[in-house]
């Protein structure tokens, strides 16, 4: 499970779920930039690994790390404006390779991202109160599977 912290300057911080030290991957978003940080035990400090990636739509508002469960790559979702982007992370810890997998566009700003327990469904919550469920098909193309829309009268979801 990803931990989202708001520290001064409102920087979303997402820590990868790990059970063994060092906890190597941390993603930090400032403005529309996403960076993967790795803890260097020699320097006793975090360093950027895998470069920096820009998301369209403004400042990053949410991030979520998918559970790996034996998958050869790690998946990370980040949101900025009406975009939710999915990134793959591969390679050794000191030379991570981060690449875009999908750009999931929405009508309103994305405020919340959450993976299911297997890391193959992504729930995206938007400012209009809606929730969209995304998952890749058999060839790896991400597609909207379900959408829950908030009732305009403030009543129950439909």
Blueprint of the fold:
Layout: E1 4-7, E2 11-15, E3 26-30, E4 33-40, E5 45-54, E6 60-65, E7 74-80, E8 83-90, E9 97-105, E10 110-115, E11 122-126, E12 131-136, E13 142-148
Antiparallel strand pairs: 1-2, 2-3, 3-4, 4-5, 6-7, 7-8, 8-9, 10-11, 11-12, 12-13
Q: Using the alpha-carbon principal axes, give the shape.
A: globular
Q: Strand share of the residues?
A: over 45%
* Major beta-sheet overview: 5 strands, antiparallel
Which structural class fits the helix and strand makeup? mainly beta
Low-pLDDT residue intervals, each spanning 5 or more residues: 1-11
SSE pattern, N- to C-terminal: EEEEEEEEEEEEE
Number of discrete helical segments: 0
- Kindly report the spatial arrangement of strands forming the biggest sheet: 1-2-3-4-5
Distance from first to last alpha carbon: 28 Å
Helix content, binned percent: under 10%
Number of strands: 13
Q: How does this structure look, described?
A:
This protein has 158 residues and is mainly β. The chain has a domain at 4-108. 0% of the residues lie in helices and 54% in strands. The protein is built from no helices and 13 strands. The chain has strands at residues 4-7, 11-15, 26-30, 33-40, 45-54, 60-65, 74-80, 83-90, 97-105, 110-115, 122-126, 131-136, 142-148. The strands form 3 sheets. Strands 1-2-3-4-5 form a 5-stranded antiparallel β-sheet, with no helix packed on it. A 4-stranded antiparallel β-sheet has the order 6-7-8-9, with no helix packed on it. It has a 4-stranded antiparallel β-sheet with strand order 10-11-12-13, with no helix packed on it. A hairpin with a 2-residue loop joins strand 7 (74-80) and strand 8 (83-90).
């Amino acid at each position: 499970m990803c931990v989202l912290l708001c520290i001064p300057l409102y920087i979303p911080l997402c820590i990868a779920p790990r059970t063994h030290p060092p906890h190597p991957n941390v993603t930090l978003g400032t403005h529309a930039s996403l960076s993967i940080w790795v803890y260097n035990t020699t320097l006793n400090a975090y360093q950027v690994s895998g470069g920096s990636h820009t998301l369209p739509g403004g400042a990053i508002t949410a991030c979520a790390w998918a559970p790996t469960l034996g998958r050869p790559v790690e998946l990370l979702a980040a949101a900025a404006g009406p975009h939710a982007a999915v990134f793959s992370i591969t390679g050794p810890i000191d030379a991570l390779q981060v690449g875009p997998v999908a750009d999931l566009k929405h009508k309103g700003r994305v405020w919340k991202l959450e993976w299911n327990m297997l890391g193959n469904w992504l729930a995206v919550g938007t400012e209009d109160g809606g929730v969209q469920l995304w998952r890749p098909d058999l060839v790896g193309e991400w597609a909207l599977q379900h959408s829950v829309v908030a009732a305009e009268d403030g009543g129950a979801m439909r």
